[in-house]
Structure formats: structure tokens, C-alpha cells
Amino acid sequence: MRNIRQYIFVAVIFHILFTGCSREKVAADSVDELPVIYPDYIGVTIPPNIAPLNFCMEDEEFTAMTVNVKGSVKGEMETVGDYADFDIDEWHRIVEDNRGGKLTVTVTAERDGRWMRFKPFDMFIDNVPIKEWGITYRLVAPGYEIYGNQGLFQRCLSDFTETAIYKTTEVPGTCVNCHTPNATNPDDFTLHIRGEKGATLIRHNGKDDWMKSRNDTVGGPMVFPYWHPTGRYIAF
User: Fold this and answer.
1) Distance CA 61, CA 75 (A)
2) Could you tell me whether strands 121-125 and 114-117 are parallel, antiparallel, or unpaired per DSSP bridges?
3) CA end-to-end span of the chain, whole Å?
4) Contact 157, 51 (CB under 8 A)
5) Helix (H) or strand (E) holding 49
6) Is 70 exposed, middle or buried (0-12, 13-18, 19+ CB in 10 A)?
7) Beta strands 114-117 and 29-30: pairing type?
8) What is the torsion angle, in degrees rounded to the nearest 10, for the CA atoms of residue 12, residue 15, residue 16 and residue 22?
9) Which residues does 28 contact at the CB level (< 8 Å), separation at least 6?
10) In angstroms, rounded to a whole number, what is the distance separating the alpha carbons of residues 196 and 159?
11) CA 6 → CA 2, 13, 19, 115, distances in Å?
12) What's the DSSP call for residue 43?
């Protein structure tokens, strides 16, 4: 009886494994066209330390997708869900392992019960990495109408780390404009803070100048700045 129970247990385990594996292999029709994805990463060249390039189908009627990524040198990974959400460690590993080569991406997506396997597309990997930080922006909630919790932020392009440069909660009752660097140089920039305690900040050559931006001559605050290529002038 003990041997029979062991046999039945093993048989059940094999049945579960076989059934589970067979469900993962969905029948898909091959489509002779590239997938329309958002953001569009088809044919792009990326640095070797870029954060995962997650994407979805542009057509919202696609409700599920399987994405396979294969390196030209080595490595393969796959993600399953309602959009391509790559594991950050797996992504960094396969991109680094194929530096100077490419990744081939195959998208299989489901719409109205029909699975479609699209033509593969490539992402090419450069040898030059990006620096630690790569993008700054003003973060404002959708439908923003009154002063509140908003500010200037920076994001590391190697992962999804986001830190605040300035938040309006530090000085309640204020609103901050997008800050504008001189030719993308983070050491030279200007920004304007609106409100009762507002002013225009100009940082240049390591010096901060807080300027009163409204007077008898200038009727309104200094907004929409643009640096002259020499860095000596700013037009508002």
C-alpha cells in the first residue's frame, strides 16, 4: 500500500507539472508585421546600463502578452502579463552580457481570445554607459489646478530611483516652475518660485542669486527662460 501511495503521489505531481507547462504554451498565429508598442523601442540603440525598457501594446484591446528577449551573444529572459514588465536584475544582466551586440525581442499578444506572435525586433546595445543621473522634470498631478504637493525631481536612468530637488511642501503656498539648465549643465540653472515668498533663482559659476522678479518695469514674474549659448544672458 505504501508503494502504491507513493506511485499515485508521483503520478499526480507529474500530471500537475505537465498540465501547468502545457497551459503556458499557448497556440499563437504568426503575424507578418511588427508589434505596435508604447513607448516605441523598435530598432533603438541603448546604453548598457539603461533601466528596463518596459512597454505595452499601443492598442488597448490587447489584454495579455508574453515577451521573449534573447541576446545576440548569450542569455534569454521572458516576461508574462498585461504589459512587458522586466525584472531589473535579469534585464541588467542580459544587457551587460550583450554589450556591443543586440537584443532580439519577440512579442506574443492576446486580443479577443486570439493570440498573435509578431515579427521580432531588435534593440542595439552601445558600449558607452550613461552617467548616474539623466533626467530632471517638474512633477505635477493630472488635473492640477491649485498649489499643492508638486516640485522638481531627478531620476536615475539606470534604475527607477527618484529624488526631489525641490518640493513646494518645503515652503507652503508656493508653486515652482520647471527649472532650466544652461545647455544641460546642472551647475548653471534658473527657476522661479511663485507665491508670497516667491523669487527667481539664478545659479551661475557656483553663486546663487535670488532676484525679485516683479517691479515697476516688469509687470509679471520671469517665466519661460532660455539661456543664450554663451551662458552670459537669459531671455524670459
Assistant:
1) 31
2) unpaired
3) 89
4) yes
5) none
6) middle
7) parallel
8) 180
9) 108, 115, 116, 117
10) 37
11) 6, 11, 20, 39
12) T
What predicted TM-score, i.e. pTM, was given to this entire model? 0.73
Residue 138 CB coordination number (10 Å): 16
Widest CA span of the chain, in angstroms? 100
| 112 residue type, one letter | D
- pLDDT of the chain, 236 residues: tens digit per residue: 555 455 545 444 444 444 444 334 567 899 999 999 999 999 999 999 999 999 999 999 999 999 999 999 999 999 999 999 999 999 999 999 999 999 999 999 999 999 999 999 999 999 999 887 788 888 887 776 666 678 889 899 999 999 998 888 877 777 887 788 898 888 898 888 877 777 888 988 889 998 876 777 766 777 788 999 888 898 88
Does residue 36 contact residue 58 with C-beta atoms inside 8 Å?
yes
- What the block records as the C-alpha cell of 191 is 527657476
Closest to 72 measured CA to CA, from 98, 109, 92: 98
User: Is the alpha carbon torsion for 10, 14, 15, 16 positive or negative?
Assistant: positive
Residue type (1 letter), 19: T
Residue tagged 512579442 (cell numbers): 107
